Amino acid sequence: MDSSHPLLHPALPVHELRADFPVLAQSVHGQPLAYLDNAATTQLPRAVLQAMERFETQDRANIHRGVHTLSQRATDAFDAARATLKAFVGADDTHELVFTSGTTEALNMVAHGLWAGGPGHAWLRPGDEIIVSGLEHHANLLPWQHAARMSGAVLRVLQPDAQGRLHLQDLAKLLGERTRVLALTATANATGEQPRYAAMLELARDAGALTVLDAAQAVAHAMPPLTQLACDFMAFSGHKMHGPMGTGALVGRREALERLYPLRLGGDMVDWVRLDGAGFAALPARLEGGTPNVAGAVGLAAAARYIDAIGRERIDAHVQALRAQAAAGLAALDGVTVLSPHATQAALVAFVARDVHPHDIGTLLDERGIAVRTGHHCAQPLHDHLGLGPTTRASFALYNTADEVERLLAGVARALEVLR
């Protein structure tokens, strides 16, 4: 049967699912909350809150270092969370998952780890080349700028075209014998653009480069299992997938992770220590120095189970329909330009309005109880490349409704009347 058959993607019971999210049952400025800022942070379902509460009230203890029962239960919960999340992203025995505070730390861990080993050990050396795309969040740009400075490597940029698209042939022209890293987003947080990342990762790996995928905006949606991607490192955040803030992971091929010099040195990441030296522990411990956020890991695993129980393809179909509704309605407004209107698989829509500042639009929408994001969305070079200033961005999740999109459109229309 065709995978696009509607029987395989039944409509989400959105109003039933909304009851899982306590935060949505409130009013803002006397209006029901329409939370449309999910590309920044998604809300927590009760299943995640309950999983974290159970841990904190029954099993809270430090892991790995205790022989007492609570420590053993906490260790088991932490290890089980790791296994759940590896399965969630489609990793296998050739991969390992390292817990982080989110995508930013994970990407810094990779960039830092590839130069900090020092002469004779670092992957990056003077004259090497690092390729990043022009779509990237600052978290997948600034660490590579620093890595280039510290290692003597050269940073090269795969620029999008005027519509914000990346092209395989442009990447092929950049790749060469000195290319050591390709760092790429799976979905641009500022526009919703989804590059052909699977093909681009494969092209870079064939050229001998390590490949890094920022999956923060994609991991909660339908994307290929990690085993099907030519991906050495993949980073994601919990708060983008209905998990706790301050949680996330770096998942990578063990061989690639072994190349990284640890970002954090200290407790629980060593095998032995003397006053004049130390030996690092095996993966994943060697990259997880310090006391981990065990409750956060438990909550993140609960979020993965929650998403899988609903079905990522069903969620994707729902948010894409909301995005299409919003994009069409916004484009029909006088003087409004929608970014990347072709990005039909996105869960977000960003736009600019002639002669009206996004912050003013966002403020007037908030007065109507509608939460959106305004600004450069930590992607200022992309906005500069596209010739844009800041934008307004609405982003959707499984609990958003078509009525909320209509409220957004009416709110933007009214804001334009007031502000022009």
From TrEMBL:
InterPro entries: Aminotrans_V_dom, Aminotrans_V_PyrdxlP_BS, Cys_dSase_SufS, PyrdxlP-dep_Trfase, PyrdxlP-dep_Trfase_major, PyrdxlP-dep_Trfase_small. One of its GO terms (biological process) is cysteine metabolic process. Catalyzes the removal of elemental sulfur and selenium atoms from L-cysteine, L-cystine, L-selenocysteine, and L-selenocystine to produce L-alanine. Pfam families: Aminotran_5. The keyword Signal does not apply. Its EC number is 2.8.1.7. It comes from Melaminivora alkalimesophila. CDD domains: SufS_like. It catalyses: (sulfur carrier)-H + L-cysteine = (sulfur carrier)-SH + L-alanine. Its cofactor is pyridoxal 5'-phosphate. It comes from the Bacteria. PROSITE patterns: AA_TRANSFER_CLASS_5 (PS00595). One of its GO terms (molecular function) is pyridoxal phosphate binding. Keywords: Lyase, Pyridoxal phosphate, Transferase. This is Cysteine desulfurase. Belongs to the class-V pyridoxal-phosphate-dependent aminotransferase family. Csd subfamily. PANTHER family: CYSTEINE DESULFURASE, CYSTEINE DESULFURASE 1, CHLOROPLASTIC.
